[in-house]
Design brief:
540 residues; alpha/beta; eight-stranded parallel β-sheet; seven-stranded mixed β-sheet; elongated
């Protein structure tokens, strides 16, 4: 078999700049690919094609059965292509080693995919590796002579005899480089419908992302319906049409599981809580004219003991309703000026022996982390908690989002903490569609640290903050720009060639478009064989 990387002996191909990745137009690119033939390509037999599990318990398991239905539906939209000399692919046969592994960050997502025979073998350690393997199988599908495998290179099209609707004959061993590969959505600034969030989850699975960081509430609105405190959304949401009910959140979490995505909710405190104060007397710190957005109130008032009772009850509900073993606690952009202007709070600080507002923040965070620790949950905080010198627990995960990220991450891992990178991947900073290139060129481990310290880099996350996105544009603004981040977090660090990635990214973008994701274009002159025509055809 021919093994990748690299085809050093394929002089003709390399002499004209044809990259080996183009033979397998997959994003994120797999860790290891072996070719049994460069010319033998089978065609999908649409009339006979099926996806099935070899184990009866896997065939009916919720996540696997949903994935099998989904990908059979994806393939059903294509016409039947003429046969190739190599024959047909008629079936994908799935085997799962550990059928009961729960969905959590760090679950085994590895898989092996073998397309050399009429029956394709897909084996995975867990149910979630099945989802990743089926997505790779779909992306191997060549729906047009100029799409994906050798788009625009007619000489090589003839050389490889790439028939419409064909698959390369390969064996793939694949697994993610990082455990945490996330995408942030913000539903406080602009509400996203349940259907929009589901479509985001579908696109995440197409890019092998595994964490939806749901920044669900913030200053502008509180759209989370709390059974314990129904008045939070009753008064804090934009209106009652812009609230996620208990059943809405259950539906989103279940749909996320079907796509191999963990939902991590963020309830950011002690700042970013203006919407909370609309229903909770004495919850916010009074500071006339010096509060959030020029209002009369700022962060949570740490001196009010009942506020910790409220937080304990609310987070008990949150951690019970979100089965993830993680919760994001925020902790960024706390306006000390509001606290400093409140004489009663300053007097209380003196009584407690707190001399600075960083110490006041530390007091609050200590109380909050005690609450979360009692619930047996892991947690993530924004980098200010680390930067401000707060006394944080050894299991705290530091989320880096500001500039000079290499220095911050090096300091974090040298301190023995795990870290997540977002600084260079703020998608809401729009320049132009080619900004995917700068996202792709980021290397999360490009920090001054030892190998053991670099092992504390948990992964990364693209952030689509909601100032200027809603149902109308969240998907097109997010994809395929996030695809570049997804490959950096999944694939081997040696993949750096922008031309190679542009080639595969165009094919991948078209593969998302045909499946109902309005992923924006990445070049000034290109086309997809089937352009976006709406979301119809895919049942949510």
């Amino acid at each position: 078999m021919l093994s990748l990387p690299r085809f050093n002996y394929l002089f003709f191909l390399l002499a004209v700049g044809f990259a080996y990745e183009n033979l397998v137009p997959v994003v994120p690119f797999p860790q290891k690919v072996e070719f049994s033939s460069l010319t033998s390509r089978k065609v999908l037999n649409k009339n006979q094609f099926k996806i099935r599990a070899t184990q009866p318990e896997v065939q009916v398991e919720k996540v696997v059965s949903a994935a099998m239905r989904r990908y059979e539906q994806y393939f059903s939209t294509f016409k039947q292509f003429p046969p190739s000399s190599a024959g047909y692919i008629t079936e994908v046969r799935i085997t799962v080693l550990y059928t009961k592994a729960p969905l959590q960050i760090g679950v085994n997502e590895s898989y092996t995919l073998d397309t050399r025979f009429s029956v394709v073998d897909l084996s995975a350690e867990t149910r979630f590796g099945v989802i990743r393997g089926l997505e790779t199988f779909y992306q191997l599908f060549n729906v047009s002579g100029k799409f994906g495998v050798i788009r625009g290179l007619e000489t090589f099209y003839q050389l490889f005899n790439v028939s419409d609707g064909s698959f390369p004959s390969v064996r793939i061993n694949d697994y993610p480089r990082f455990s945490f590969r996330g995408l942030l959505i913000d539903t406080s600034r602009h509400f996203l419908s349940v259907d929009s969030i589901k479509r985001v989850l579908e696109a995440m699975a197409m890019n092998k992302l595994n964490v939806l960081h749901w920044h669900i509430v913030d200053d502008p609105s509180f759209p989370f319906f709390s059974v314990t405190f129904p008045q939070l959304s009753g008064l804090g949401a934009y209106d009652q049409n812009h609230v996620y009910s208990v059943s809405d959140i259950e539906d989103i979490i279940s749909y996320a599981e079907d796509h191999g995505v963990v939902v991590v909710p963020e309830f950011d405190t002690p700042g970013h809580v203006l919407s909370w104060g609309k229903s909770l007397p004495d919850f916010l710190t009074p500071c006339p004219g010096k509060g959030t957005f020029g209002t009369d109130h700022g962060p949570i008032n740490p001196s009010v003991e009942n506020n910790y009772v409220i937080l304990e009850k609310l987070f008990a509900e949150v951690t019970a309703r979100f089965p993830s073993n993680f919760v994001h606690l925020g902790g960024d952009e706390v306006p000390f000026g509001c606290w400093a202007s409140n004489e009663n709070l300053t007097e209380w600080m003196h009584e407690k022996g707190l001399k600075t507002y960083a110490q006041l923040e530390n007091y609050y965070e200590d109380r909050l982390l005690d609450i979360i620790a009692s619930m047996n949950h892991s947690y993530v905080v924004w980098q200010e908690i680390f930067n401000n010198g707060l006394k944080i627990r050894p299991d705290t995960i530091i989320h880096v989002w500001k500039g000079n990220w290499q220095k911050t991450m090096a300091s974090v891992v040298k301190g023995g903490y795990r870290t997540i990178l977002s600084s260079p991947w703020y998608l809401n900073y729009i320049s132009k569609s080619l900004d995917w290139k700068k996202y792709y060129q980021v290397e999360p481990l490009d920090i001054d640290a030892t190998p053991a310290q670099k092992a504390l880099v948990f992964g990364g996350e693209a952030c689509m903050w909601g100032e200027f996105v809603d149902n109308t544009n969240v998907l097109s603004r997010t994809f395929p720009r996030t695809s570049a981040v997804a490959e950096r977090l999944w694939s081997d660090a040696s993949l750096k060639d922008l031309d190679d990635m542009a080639f595969r990214l165009h094919a991948h973008r078209c593969g998302m478009v045909v499946r109902g994701v309005p992923a924006e274009n990445i070049s000034t002159r290109s086309f997809c064989p089937m352009e976006f025509s709406g979301y119809d055809g895919y049942e949510l």
